[in-house]
Amino acid sequence: MKKLFFLSIVVCSLSVAAQPVGYYNGTEGLRGEALKSKLNQIISGHYFYQSSSVWFNNNYASYYNAKNVFLESDADPDIPGNVICVYRGLSYDGNNYGTAKGTLNREHIWAKSHGAFPENAAVYCDYHNLRPSEASINNKKSNLDFDWVTNGTEYENSGCYYSSNAWEPRTPVKGDIGRTLFYMDTRYAGIAGELNLTVVNSLNTYPQPRHGKLDALYEWNTEIDLPDFFEVNRNEVIYKYQGNRNPYIDNPYWVEMIWGDRNPATVLIGNMAQTPLVATASNPVEISATVSNASNISSVQLVWGYSFDDLENSENMELEAGRWLAQIPSQPQNTRIYLRVAVNSNGTRTESVQYSYYVYGTMPIAKVRGNGDNSPYENQSVSVTGIVTASYSDGYYIQDDVNTRSGIYIYDGYHKTMIGNVVQLTGTVTDYYGLTEIKSVSSYKLLQIKVPLPEPLVINTGKVSKNYQSMFVRLNNVTCTALPDNNGNWQVDDGYGKILVHNSSAYSFSPTMNQKYDIQGILTYYNNVWRIELRTAGDVDAANEIYQIDNLSNKMRLLPNPAKTFIIVQMKDEFPVPTGTLRIFSVDGKLHYSEEIVLQDLTEGYRVDIDSLSSGSWIFSLKYAEKVVNKVFIIK
Q1: How much is the pLDDT for 252?
Q2: What is the per-residue DSSP string for 412-469?
Q3: What is the structure's pLDDT at 63?
Q4: Residues 6 or more apart from 348 whose CB is under 8 A from it?
Q5: pLDDT one-digit tens code per residue, 261-293
């Protein structure tokens, strides 16, 4: 199997979903533990099956469902229904599982006995770590560590060698194995009660949560077996189902920056973004980025192409308001575009991580909405693609851009979806009492899970109009002027006028009269009245609550304090509600970090990365059940 690799391999044309532009924002300039910590922050929290009460369209990762995912992630391209065995490299019936020779097992590359994986935990059913393997060779491999085997035995002409304490996989997957173990070390770092897995430079590591051998795995990733088309596509398929990626497939050089002595580029290319968020055949796509720590810049270019190993086109980027911008012309539907940003300065060329996007054949939501009060497509069938920004019992809102008129309500109580999903659907456009919506959904397809949401548009009540209808918006520093009525509507005023806030079926909040709040949610029109629909517990923040003194602050433990790149919050109190919000404020009251959390996770300690924050004093805030616990910490 020939291996191909360019600066940062990403997705391939076999899978529809794409690595979002900017997925690795914040990694630029980092190395060592700081880089590893940032990657952990990016890839943690993926979806997995926990219990019968946590279920979503059969797409939660589960050990049982792995064999269905293998039919796509490990498919034999020449024999439909067959999969490629990771160790033998041969093709087997993808539905024939068992213990006899010739049947398949679901192999844990990081052996599940190295740490005693709990069966109801994400680590047990992580698709990145699971591969189809022929039963007999899987039994022979057992839970051996990986290493070069010099005086061992080849297993049945498979290209795999073994001894009493090590297993050497066939050469075409040596790098795959190494990148899988480096992923597991990065993803499972002992945070929030999870196992702390560590790649070590030794053998016979069972039953500790360690796996070896580091020197061999490092060499296999760096020199022997770089990512190929099969591995790249596998990463993309798993991202579609599980919601996270193996970063060392996207950029194997990161292994050298964390476990070796490779330094990152001096020139920093960051804050990469794409607009519209969902590319369609009728629109060009704008790519933007920031460039820092560069002098004597001769050019900044957007290089792009139609295959991951050939970016044959180049557009000069222009600097506007601190960001470098360039457009990729509109492309035919069902096209995948691969791209990087390249900076030429001081005679040196620096390139960003490589990303891609997929061009859908659906209609932009802004075109469906039109420019008037009513849609020009009223009573017509249309197809749209968008990111779910809110989900309720009778429907959901989707958005495909950050510009106005890019959101729409889907009246569809049948297809249960979640915030952060990318969905494609066909339905009939209607204007229902002033709210443009799509109903009678005739087709529905889940394309991706756990995609970052667009930033909310910051508005004031003087901007309330059809332009912002069904968009994800934010109101800052508004005052509660009326408490909730029997329908769950309460009122706020930001000085430009009054607007309602609705306690929805998804989230309900009890405001305090005359208290100031920052509020985000979906701007909608109901019964001839504008209002903000609340979605989650993070949608309402008290604008001045960080100055409150709470008698539970002595029960909040922050370690280390002072801190550098991360902080662990631990609190062993009993909570009256299951979830809350962790936030970090600067001392002037500005919110810099917010994350919803299962409060039970705090009993073991929950890690928050703070490497993007400057040195000085900060306020760590835990909000739950309308209560707030605050504590000051220091960043060196």
Answers
A1: 94
A2: -SSS---TT-EEEEEEEEEEETTEEEEEEEEEEEEEESSPPPPPPEE--GGG-SGGGT
A3: 85
A4: 267
A5: 999 999 999 999 999 999 999 789 999 999 999
Q: Where does residue 289 rank: exposed (0-12), middle (13-18), buried (19+ CB within 10 A)?
A: buried
**Domain 268-360 coded CATH 2.60.40.10:** yes
Q: What is the residue type of 22?
A: G
Phi and psi based region of residue 581 (left: phi greater than 0; alpha: psi -120 to 50; beta: remaining): beta
Q: Which residue has the tokens 């959904």?
A: 441
Tell whether omega for the bond before 560 is within 30 degrees of 0, i.e. cis: yes
pLDDT band at 131 (very low <50, low <70, confident <90, very high): very high
Give the C-alpha separation, 243 to 245, whole Å. Answer: 7
| DSSP-derived secondary structure letter, 369 | H
The yes-or-no answer to whether 365-448 and 457-542 have a common fold is yes
Domain 548-635 sits in CATH 2.60.40.10 = no
Architecture category of domain 365-448 in CATH: Beta Barrel (2.40)
Check pLDDT > 50 for residue 488: yes
Q: At what angle do helices 174-187 and 32-43 cross, to 10 degrees?
A: 80
pTM of the complete model: 0.80
Q: What is the fold, at CATH topology level, of the domain defined by 457-542?
A: OB fold (Dihydrolipoamide Acetyltransferase, E2P) (2.40.50)
Domain boundaries of the chain, sorted by first residue? 32-259, 268-360, 365-448, 457-542, 548-635
Q: Distance between CA atoms of 385 and 377, rounded to whole angstroms?
A: 16
Lowest mean pLDDT among 165-174, 495-504, 612-621: 612-621
pLDDT of residue 502: 95
Cα distances from 247 to residues 42, 218, 250, in angstroms, run 9, 15, 5
pLDDT surpasses 90 at 480: yes
Angle (CA) 220 565 323, round 5°: 85
